[in-house]
Amino acid sequence: MVLISAVRDYINRMLQDISGMKVLILDSHTVSIVSVGYSQSELLQKEVFLVELVDSIYKSKEPMSHLKAVYFLRPTSENIQHLRQQLASPRFGEYHLFFSNILKDTQIHNLADADEQEVVQQIQEFYADFVAIDPYHFTLNMPSNHIYMLPAVVDPSNSQHFCDRVVDGIASIFLALKRRPIIRYQRNSDIAKRIAQETAKLMYQQESGLFDFRRMEVSPLLLVIDRRDDPVTPLLNQWTYQAMVHELIGIQDNKVDLRNIGKLPKDQQEVVLSSEQDAFFKANMYENFGDIGMNIKRLVDEFQQISKSNQSIQTIEDMAKFVDKYPEYRKMHGNVSKHVTLVTEMSKIVEERKLMLVSETEQELACNGGQVAAFEWHGERSFARVEEQVCL
């Protein structure tokens, strides 16, 4: 499952086949999809000189007929309405419409009716309705989704909207991978059953032709399980690099916000943690915290050696070599600073929150079982600490 490659392939096809200067218009969901899969410099290379949100671009009335508008949106009723309004008085020379999931026939007809000036050049479905955070993991960026795992008797008003979004995301994954899976779900979970049944209905009945891919020797398996079936893991502190950054500081769309941890240079207040763009992170994202410190020390030592070699510039040839390597040197400097800052901040948090001691207690509770033994063990440790303080 090379999810990032699938998303990047869709974005490449969107942009490279349309020559000339372009404006890329996204919605609140697709902006995350594109920002994780594509960098700003890569967008510039594809002649994208402006990126706007679909619900705010109408605020400007200035005509830009020299630009070609490339829309990449989720096929929601709100986005279709935005498009209808913008097609009624077009500002751009051409309109190329791409949707991240399956369009309804009525939506296509609505867009065709609104295109009175015939500025729309194409309408296509590019199935990238998920945020690919690395080659094997994705998210749908649905906050507070734990609410929808409550029993069926507690039915939030927008639970159908939640279920539809999950089904859409799963469908786009398998359309991007060109697979139709066998679907299994956790029997005692209402929400797992609901999602599995609606996904099966979409893939095997409503859009069976769209999912009619060549069969493989071993069919892929979609397993829908309820997070509540594992109550232990969420209660344990994580000790691998990526998990610790996410839990202690926070990662959103592969970006880490460091503005609140102290005075940092402006270019380091928000950093990118991507296994596709950062070789050190890719090699260490699943390493234990203790090993990370040693690996970062080696990274710093390597950078210091390169810095020393750059200081011995004495000839024109030396200067030319340094200039050629300068972008790589700057990138390495930023990478070293980023990881040193992250590990320093996490070490501080571990110390302040006494997470080593807390984690030890968590492991005892999770692995040994029996609350009485855990209370006795914790009480003995507390009593021993009091004795130590008295002796001091």
UniProtKB/TrEMBL annotation:
Q: How does it sit in the membrane?
A: Peripheral membrane protein
Q: What is the name of this protein?
A: Vacuolar protein sorting 45
Q: Which organism is it from?
A: Quercus lobata
A Pfam short name: Sec1
A GO term from the CC aspect = Golgi apparatus
> What does the UniProt entry say about where the protein is found?
Endomembrane system
Q: Known SUPFAM superfamilies for this protein?
A: Sec1/munc18-like (SM) proteins
Q: What UniProt keywords are attached to this protein's entry? A: Membrane, Protein transport, Transport
The biological process GO terms on file are: intracellular protein transport; regulation of vesicle fusion; vesicle-mediated transport
Q: Does the keyword Protease apply?
A: no
Which protein family is it in? Answer: Belongs to the STXBP/unc-18/SEC1 family.
Recorded superkingdom: Eukaryota
InterPro entries from the UniProt entry: Sec-1-like_dom1, Sec1-like, Sec1-like_dom2, Sec1-like_sf
